[in-house]
Design goal:
With 651 residues, the protein is of the alpha/beta class. The chain has 21 helices and 30 strands. Bound molecules: adenosine-5'-monophosphate-propyl ester.
Length: 651
């Protein structure tokens, strides 16, 4: 964490404060500060009261059972997520309200009302049942951002089959590992997807992945591309989405799920090479996603809301699918890139659909900033009312640019801190109440007991920094790592005792108590808002037959936040060359996915290690970022570092 010390000191001097706009103060969903106090005084009453906003088949008998680190919420409650996202709206006037306005990368449009979505979800639920999927079976979903993706998620929720969505940018191998780990019976994919005009061969990846999966019985394929996808179709195993849906009955009885039944598994990177299957359950997760969506984004009935994430990440799960649909919100669903066919694509869509609320990642804001303000200026952005960011710390410069050039100085910005594991937003302004400071996620939400502690777990007084922890359970918290309860306890609940959640992030609080997130304190990188472990990339490199050893770090990058830098020792007799660098980059992209392609690779005869054999990543980071070297007295062979440093400077 220490290398972040310098910039953060500057951050803590941040004097700019933005008070909520008067209209927002007057009309926001949450206008009374007392809610923080109430939640603190009696958390169970607070959450219980909040859970009344959901529709339950049967209410809970007990709010919380907390046997640290195991939490159960709304015990005895019976609920179905798809009923909350669809049926209750379809019963009301919202039946013909748009649930999703979809735009394909090529410009096609499709509007699905809640009624349409309800019908499609019911039919696909029945189709899955006919394919043999029963309650409790896992379903892996590897799809582009097309309407069938949220339909698939909701159908899984309806029949009680936990889904595991794998981001379409992951490789066949990564997909295979995730299918095997979840032991999925069914895979849902498409014949391909479009990305910057290119076809991404999703079905081919599925075919390659499944070669090593005994568990998969059927593959459902959406026809997105058609002829030019030229896919192989295994008549015994593969079925077309449109075929199975066509003959399916119109209504599927929703499964009454126990509040604690699993809703989904979502893989995320930890500190080892093997991604963790974070498991979320039903009642508590839905409450977290829907409540925070309503409060943080201050969503109103008539709003058009757009979260630009991919559903393959948790942001898409909670803030494209479950939160917004539970609240009956109209959302935009966009298939492609922000810069295709040109760099004003997003802003053209904001104008076209009259988007009121826009939620994206700092890395995207920094890219847009770099492209220049002429692109947003081409469009009327006056419909925007509120802006949000997520995924990584936002630098004050990018915050100010977002505020001025996109929000025209008018829109509050909610910088939202949370994680796959937390299920929903934990630290964020409430737009009608909180004065914001550029670069700070401000305060924990009502009911969230976050703190900053030192090595010994003691609260650090205001003005100081340490580790971010959460000291009380919350409904949308992860319940376990699928198939590895031990790792769950070890990773999150051992560092500061077993009733304190360790988030893995560094954090400082200023004198006013504002939280300033500092990034990860473990070996997890944040590349363009995507989580990747250094170990994952290292093992992909070492998998190459000519690589003897590799060390990977995230180095600071103006747009991506962090970029992957790898230090590689080749096997005896093999020489490094620009071609070898390309080959290794390709190898990693093929093993994990294009998101893991290292930006720079340095060859070195040896890696700097401590006497106990640990790779000195901090030192490598200093070298990759061109900083002066700090203390190297613990190095086993100090000459290694100088050699590396010289090489870097020649680069
Ligand atoms: O380091 C924090 C960073 O993203 C991590 C969580 O990544 P993931 O599980 O992929 O979820 C991303 C979207 C919720 C955190 O440990 N992070 C997320 N939001 C912020 C952030 N860092 C600083 N500020 C944020 N607003």
């Amino acid at each position: 964490m220490s290398e972040s010390d310098k910039p953060i000191e500057a951050l803590l001097q941040e004097e700019r404060v933005f008070t909520p706009p008067v209209e927002c103060e007057k009309s926001a969903n949450i206008r009374d500060r007392a809610v923080y106090e109430q939640a603190k005084k009696d958390p169970e009453a607070f959450w219980s009261n909040a859970a009344e906003s959901l529709e339950w088949f049967k209410k809970w008998d007990q709010v919380l059972d907390w046997k640290p680190p195991l939490a159960k919420w709304f015990i005895g409650g019976k609920i179905n997520v798809s009923v909350n996202c669809l049926d209750r709206h379809v019963r009301s006037w919202r039946r013909n309200k748009a649930a999703f306005i979809w735009e394909g990368e090529k410009g096609e449009e499709r509007v699905l009302t809640f009624g349409d979505l309800f019908r499609e979800v019911n039919k696909f639920s029945n189709a899955m049942k006919k394919l043999g999927v029963v309650k409790g079976d896992r379903v892996t979903i590897y799809m582009p951002m097309i309407p069938e993706l949220p339909i698939a998620l909701l159908a899984c929720a309806r029949i009680g089959a936990p889904h595991s969505v794998v981001f379409g940018g992951f490789s066949a191998e990564s997909l295979r590992d995730r299918i095997n780990d979840a032991d999925s019976k069914l895979v849902i994919t498409a014949d391909g997807s479009y990305r910057r005009g290119q076809i991404v061969p999703l079905k081919q990846n599925v075919d390659a992945a499944i070669e090593g999966c005994a568990c998969v019985e059927k593959v459902v394929v959406v026809k997105r591309i058609g002829e030019s996808a030229s896919i192989n179709f295994d008549e015994k195993r593969d079925v077309w989405w449109h075929d199975v849906v066509e003959s399916a009955p119109k209504y599927c009885e929703p499964e009454p799920m126990d509040s604690e039944d699993p809703l989904f598994i979502l893989y995320t990177s930890g500190t080892t090479a093997k991604p963790k299957g974070i498991l979320h359950t039903t009642g508590g997760y839905l409450l977290g996603a829907s409540l925070t969506h309503k409060w943080v984004f201050d969503v109103k009935e008539e709003d058009v809301y757009w979260c630009s994430a991919d559903i393959g990440w948790v942001t898409g799960h909670s803030y494209i699918v479950y939160g917004p649909l539970a609240n009956g919100t109209t959302g935009i669903l966009y298939e492609g890139s922000p810069d295709w066919p040109d760099k004003d694509r997003w802003w053209g869509m904001v104008e076209k659909y009259g988007v009121n609320i826009f939620y994206t990642a700092p890395t995207a804001i920094r890219a847009v900033m770099k492209w220049g303000e002429a692109y947003p200026e081409k469009h009327d952005l006056s419909s925007l009312r509120l802006l949000g960011t997520v995924g990584e710390p936002i630098n004050p410069e990018a915050w100010m640019w977002y505020h001025e050039k996109i929000g025209k100085g008018r829109c509050p910005i909610v910088d939202t801190w949370w994680q796959t594991e937390t299920g929903s937003i934990m630290i964020s302004p409430l737009p009608g109440l909180t004065s914001t400071k550029p670069g700070s996620a401000t305060f924990p939400l009502p009911g969230i007991d976050a703190d900053v502690v030192d090595e010994a777990g003691k609260t650090v007084p205001l003005g100081g920094g340490g580790y971010l922890v959460i000291k009380s359970p919350w409904p949308s918290m992860a319940r376990t790592i699928y198939g590895n309860a031990e790792r769950y306890e070890e990773t999150y609940w051992k560092r500061f005792g077993n009733n304190v959640y360790f988030a893995g992030d560094g954090c400082k609080r200023d004198k006013d108590g504002y939280f300033w997130l500092l990034g990860r304190v473990d070996d997890v990188m944040n590349i363009s808002g995507h989580r990747l472990s250094t170990m994952e990339v290292e093992s992909a490199l070492v998998d190459h037959q000519q690589v003897a050893e590799a060390a990977v770090i995230g180095k600071q990058d103006d747009v991506k936040g962090e970029a992957i830098a790898a230090f590689v020792t080749l096997k005896e007799g093999i020489n490094g060359s620009p071609e070898k660098i390309d080959e290794l980059k390709k190898h990693v992209a093929q093993k994990i996915g294009p998101i893991a392609r290292p930006e720079s690779i340095y060859f070195t005869a040896e890696l700097p290690k401590t006497r106990s054999g640990k790779i000195m990543r901090r030192l490598l980071r200093d070298i990759a970022e061109g900083r002066a070297l700090g203390d190297t007295t613990t190095l086993a062979d100090a000459s290694v570092v100088n050699q590396l440093k010289n090489q870097y400077e020649e680069d």
